[in-house]
Amino acid sequence: MGRGVEMTGCGKFVRFLMFAINFIIWVSSIVILVLGIWTVADRPYLERLLGSEMYMTAAYILIGTGCVTFFVSFLGCFGALREVKCMLLTYFIVVLLLFIILLIGGILGYVFKDKARINMNHAMLNAMKEYKIDSDSPYTKAWDETQQAMKCCAIAHQEEWPTNNKEFSMSNLHVPKSCCKKDDTSGEMLDCQRNPTKENSYTEGCFSKAISFVENHALIIGVVGIAVAVITVLGLVLSIVLFKMID
C-alpha cells in the first residue's frame, strides 16, 4: 500500500505523536544495548561461579532486543512520517511480538527467582570443591576474581573453605590468597591464609554479595524494561489509529 492523502488536525497530531514515541523508543533501544554490553563486561567471572549461563544469556538477550528495537523504532518513525500503511502494519506485528516475548520473560524470571537462588548456592558450593591452590583452573580463577572484586570470602563464612575443599582441609591454610586484604607474597599474606581475621581478610560471604549484585542489575534492567514496555504499548495503539486514518 502506498502513501495516504495529506492529513489535517487530529491526524497530524497522531502522526507527530507516533514519531515522537518511536524516537523515544529508538533512544531507549540504545540504553538497552548499553545495559546489555555493561552486563557482559561487568563481573563476567560470575557466570562460571554461579554455575549457570542465565546471567550472560540475559545480557545477550538485552543486546539482541536492543538491536531489533533500534531498527523497528526506525520503521515506526519512517512509517509515521511517510504514512505508509504496510510499514505501520509490519511495525505493529513486530513490536507486539517483542512485547509478548518480554512479558513472558519477565513473568518466568519472577516465577523462577527463588529457584535460581538455590541453584546459585549449589553451584558455588560445587565450584568451591573444585578450587585448586596455586592453580589457574577456571574455578580457581572465578573464585579468586570474585573474592577480590567483591571483597568477600567463601559462600557464607570463611570456615567453609577447609570444610568443603580437600586441599585446604589437608593443609595449614584456611583461606585462599584472594580472601586476604593485602595482595602480596610477604609473610603477612601467608599469616592471613593460616590465621584469617577481620583485620587481615574479608569475612563477608560472597553469596549475599553476588545475589545483591545480580538483583541490582536486574532492578535497573527491569525499570528500563517496564518504561520501554509502557512506551511500546502507546506506539502499538498509535500505529493502529494512524493505520485506520490513512486512506
Automatic annotation (TrEMBL):
Keyword annotations for this protein, in alphabetical order, are:
Disulfide bond, Membrane, Transmembrane, Transmembrane helix
**Location of the protein in the cell:** Membrane
Membrane topology field: Multi-pass membrane protein
Membrane-spanning ranges: 16-38, 58-81, 88-112, 218-243
Stored InterPro entries: Tetraspanin/Peripherin, Tetraspanin_animals, Tetraspanin_CS, Tetraspanin_EC2_sf
Q: Which SUPFAM superfamilies match?
A: Tetraspanin (SSF48652)
The SS bond pairs are: C153-C180
Q: Which family does it belong to?
A: Belongs to the tetraspanin (TM4SF) family.
Name of the protein described by the UniProt record: Tetraspanin
Q: Which organism is it from?
A: Cherax quadricarinatus (Australian red claw crayfish)
